[in-house]
Amino acid sequence: MSSTPLSPRLEVQNLRRVFDGQAVVEDVSFSIPAGQVTCLLGPSGCGKSTTLRLIAGVDRPDAGRICVDGMPICDETSYVPPERRAIGLMFQDFALFPHLSVAENVAFGLKGGGANTRARVGELLEKVHLSRHAQSYPHALSGGEQQRVALARALAPRPRILLMDEPFSGLDERLRDGIRDETLGLLKDEGTAVLLVTHEPHEAMRMADEILLMRAGRIVQRGAPYNLYNAPVDRAAAAFFSDINVLKGRVRGALTPTPFGDFLTPGHPDGTEIDIVIRPQHLKIDFDRAGRGPNPTAQDGTPARGIVERARFLGRESLVEFRMEVDGSVLRASVPNVFLPKPGTPMWLMIRRDRCFVFPATGRA
Ligand SMILES: Nc1ncnc2c1ncn2[C@@H]1O[C@H](COP(=O)(O)OP(=O)(O)O)[C@@H](O)[C@H]1O
Ligand SMILES: [Mg+2]
Question: What are its GO biological-process terms (predicted)?
Fold first, then answer.
C-alpha cells in the first residue's frame, strides 16, 4: 500500500452493520491520524466491538467504507482480508499462546527468524520491561506482565493501526492507571494510530487525544476529553462522565425560573420543559450565618437553602446530600478533601451559570 501524506492513517465513512434486521452500527464516520490515540467510548452493547471487528476485517459491513492511508481496504468493490490490513489487535483476554515463550509470542507476527526479528523482539521486551522474562511462559507471568507481552506482540510488526478492545479490563483495578500510563507512553513512542474501545470514561479521559462517544450504534459526540466533559451534547452525555444533579424548569420568555433564580434559556419555545444539569463538584456551598446566607455574585444566581441529609468521606472528596427546603428535592455536592457537616445543618447552595448545562427535558425524573 502506498501512502498519501495528507490522508489520515485510518478513515471510516458511514459504516453500517445490521444483525437480525437491527442496525448495531449506524452511520459511523471518523478518522485517526498517525500518532493519535482515539477512544471509542460507550455503554456495553452500543456497538463498539462490532465497529472494531469491521475495521479489523473479521466482519464485513453492510455499508460504508474503510481506508488506510487513503487506500480503501473495504468498500463496495474492494475487500482486503484481515491479515493483509497491517492492523494490530489487542483484546481484553490478551490471547497469548500458552505453548510459546514470551519472546516467541512477541515474534509471532514477524516474518522470518533472523537478526531483524531478534532485534525488534529485544527492543520491545526492553520497552515493556520484560527482557529478563524472555524465555518464560505466559502462565508464569502476572496479569500486568501478560498485558505487556500482548502489547509488545501487537506492536512488533509495526502495524499502521492498533485496535484495542477493553485492553485493561482484565487487570486489577489498583494496577490499571499505572499500566494505562505505561501503555500510552509506548503507543506514543511507536507513533501508530490507535483506536481503543472502552466503556470507562475515566480510562478514555486518561488515554485519549480524542474521544468518540457512542450510543446505540451511533457516534453522538466527538472531541478532546476536556470538551466532552465540559460541553456535553445532551443530558445522557453529561451523565456518562459523572453523577449529575438535574433541576427541572419550564421556559418563560427566554428564561427558565428555578429556586436558584432565572436561567437564560434562549432558543427554546415558551413552555418547553428544561433540564438544568450540574455536576456535584460544581455546586457552590455556603454557610447559613444564622439565616442571612451568602452574598452571591451575578454568576452564582440566587442561593437556595438546603438541609444536610448525609455526608460521606470518599478519600479525595466528600459527598454531601442536601434536601432543598423549597421543594424537597435532593442535590449532591462533592467537596474536595474532608467536609462532613452534621445531618440537619442548614446550608446555602448556588448554581454557577458558567458551570451548568441546559438541555430540553428528556422525560426522565
Ligand atoms: N454476531 C452477532 N450476531 C448478532 N448480534 C450481534 C453480533 N455481534 C454483536 N451483536 C449485537 O450487537 C450489539 C452490539 O454489540 P457489541 O458491538 O459487542 O457492543 P459493545 O462492544 O459496545 O459492548 C449487541 O446488542 C450485540 O448483542
Ligand atoms: Mg465490546
Answer: quaternary ammonium group transport
pLDDT of residue 2: 53
CA dist., res. 89 & res. 31, Å (int): 18
Residue 92 has a pLDDT of: 81
Among 50, 197, 200, name the best residue to mutate to test ligand 1's pocket (greatest count of ligand atoms within 8 A of Cβ): 50
Tens of pLDDT along 177-187?
999 999 999 99
Question: pLDDT for 140-170, tens place per residue?
Answer: 999 899 999 999 999 999 999 999 999 998 8
- List Cα–Cα distances, 102 to 97, 142, 169, 221, 266, in angstroms: 9, 12, 21, 40, 61
- Cβ atoms of 35 and 189 closer than 8 Å: no
Which bound ligand lies closest to the C-alpha atom of 40?
1
- 239 Cβ contact list (under 8 Å, min separation 6): 277
Q: Does any ligand 1 atom lie closer than 6 A to the CB of residue 45?
A: yes
Average pLDDT over residues 117-142: 95
Query: Quick one: CA dihedral 154, 157, 158, 163, positive or negative?
Result: negative
Query: Which residue's CA is the nearest one to ligand 1's atom 1?
Result: 19
C-alpha grid cell, residue 132? 529478563
User: 21 CB contacts (<8 Å, ≥6 apart)?
Assistant: none
Q: Does domain 10-239 have CATH number 3.40.50.300?
A: yes
DSSP line for 240-280: HHS--EEEEEE-BTTEEEETTEEEE-TTS-TT-EEEEEE-G
Does the 243-360 domain belong in CATH 2.40.50.140? yes
Task: Write down the domain spans for the chain.
Answer: 10-239, 243-360
